[in-house]
Amino acid sequence: MMADMHNLKYIHTDLKPENVLLTSSECRKFVVPVLEGSSKRLKELRVPRCSRVKLIDFGSATSYKQRSASSIVSTRHYRAPEVILGLGWSYPCDIWSIGCMLAELSTGVLLFDTHEDLEHLAMMERILGRIPSHLIKNVTGKAEEYFRHRRRLNWPEGASSSRSVRAVQRVLQLDELLEKYADDYENSFLDLLRQLLKYDPNDRPTAEEALGHPFFRGH
């Protein structure tokens, strides 16, 4: 879907779980035993009969030529770093959002549970490592105040509160997050997420390239 959309020169700009729907509501029901302390109980699970999905909500979609690269796009939790840093955006902002969604769907928790730009960037560094210096040197607008001398993130010095600092400190690195919440995840899945969540949009795979990743090929 995303590859087709990008091939048509359109960018969705608001990819999030709410905008990805199953094409059918039909489900299979399974009853499985679940441990609760020292006792077991039976739990009914509903599994979709069809795994096909579709995208919805194209109200924010824009063509490549008509996009305003200076505008803010994407719902906060799925917003790419280049958008926050004022570096302009294009197709790769959708790829970043897909990475955030895949991480959330596999763990059941938001990858970036925040509502502030600086805190968001601090969480990125906690989860993915330091923001590359060549991106920091090119930040524009309000994002300039998030860095000290255009060298490093102004964190925790610039935090809005001690509560914000604690929220970032609780965040796990990407591999630790998957180990904690996603049972038996494949190493290829971790590699896929790392590719989709590259800081530099030029380093992220296209949607078409991502489909060729070993995780999707089952290797």
TrEMBL record:
InterPro entries: CLK_kinases, Kinase-like_dom_sf, Prot_kinase_dom, Ser/Thr_kinase_AS. Coiled coil: none annotated. Keywords: ATP-binding, Kinase, Nucleotide-binding, Serine/threonine-protein kinase, Transferase. Residues 1-216 form the Protein kinase domain. One of its GO terms (molecular function) is ATP binding. It comes from the Eukaryota. One of its GO terms (cellular component) is nucleus. PROSITE patterns: PROTEIN_KINASE_DOM, PROTEIN_KINASE_ST. SUPFAM superfamilies: Protein kinase-like (PK-like) (SSF56112). Pfam families: Pkinase. This is Protein kinase domain-containing protein. It comes from Ceratopteris richardii.
